[in-house]
Amino acid sequence: MNTSRPSLVIAGATGFIGSYLVKAAVSAGYHVTRLVRSLPPETPLHCTDVVWEPSAHKVDETVMAGATGVICLNGAPLIGKAWTKSYKKLLWDSRIDSVQTLVEGIRRLSDEERPECFISGSAIGFYESDSGDLVLNEGMPSGTGFLADLCSSWESCAQRCEDEAGVRTVMIRTGLVMGADGGMLGILQHLYRAGLGGPLSDGSAWMSTISLIDHVRAILYAVVHPVLHGPINAVCPQPVRNQEWNALLARHLHRPAVIRIPLKPLSWLFPHAIGETIMASQRVVPVALLDAGFTFTAPTVTDIFCQALPQR
């Protein structure tokens, strides 16, 4: 391992967010240890791959010794598959097992060896899925439903790292991450480019989004700013209703977007509990990040579209 660089240990390093996080971390001067299920054919420069088995609670804790931070983004995708009983179990177990495994590994290290911080994924699904016009900051209570229960348990597991191991812990409550190659925008942009876009249902739902670049920047900011601990909302400062989001995307792509998309076709595009994800109405604001001095490169939805979908 290149010991001349500060180190990060990242679980979930090959997904939509994790793969970009690895690149950004390396560019920022870190050596990254990627926790993987099996060794890939190639390992990027300034990275090391280490196999772990979260379902069996197996990890070599020594890979986390002396790390600047341990980041856990591991978990089966919330968007893209039907939330059957078996898939709900996978959504739950993949997150809880991963966090528990890392926290247990950190606890096995001596006080001197433990990482400086532990960053765990979470989601704005922690809040009530239909919160009306209520502005949701990090101090608001958890909601009801499967996703809120999952996020609450997920965060409770992560908090053990601070309570039991004395390691500063941050839970990233992720909003709708906007990037060209994944997530909601990765799917919907093709409909809009074909002139088939439009408001989702009646267009009244609040959307709390963040660019992929700012989301990764927020994670790395949390690593080096001790003032941040506990839950932080990873969303841009200006949530908008879906009707406005739709109009702004259509304007950005220079395409019409007047076809109102009813719930049934939405369930074909996003075969999961859309009421708790895509169609959730949550007006979330990033109070903790702003109070800590974080600046967004894409503070508005217009900025997010310009960043994620550059004009051709």
Automatic annotation (TrEMBL):
TM regions (residue ranges): none
Q: Which InterPro entries match?
A: DUF1731 (IPR013549), Epimerase_deHydtase (IPR001509), NAD(P)-bd_dom_sf (IPR036291), SDR39U1 (IPR010099)
* Gene3D superfamilies according to UniProt: NAD(P)-binding Rossmann-like Domain
Q: Which residues form the DUF1731 domain?
A: 276-303
Residues forming the NAD-dependent epimerase/dehydratase domain are: 9-226
Superkingdom of this entry's organism? Bacteria
In the record, the note on similarity to other proteins reads: Belongs to the NAD(P)-dependent epimerase/dehydratase family. SDR39U1 subfamily.
Q: What is this protein called?
A: TIGR01777 family protein
Tell me what organism the protein belongs to.
Answer: Arcanobacterium phocae
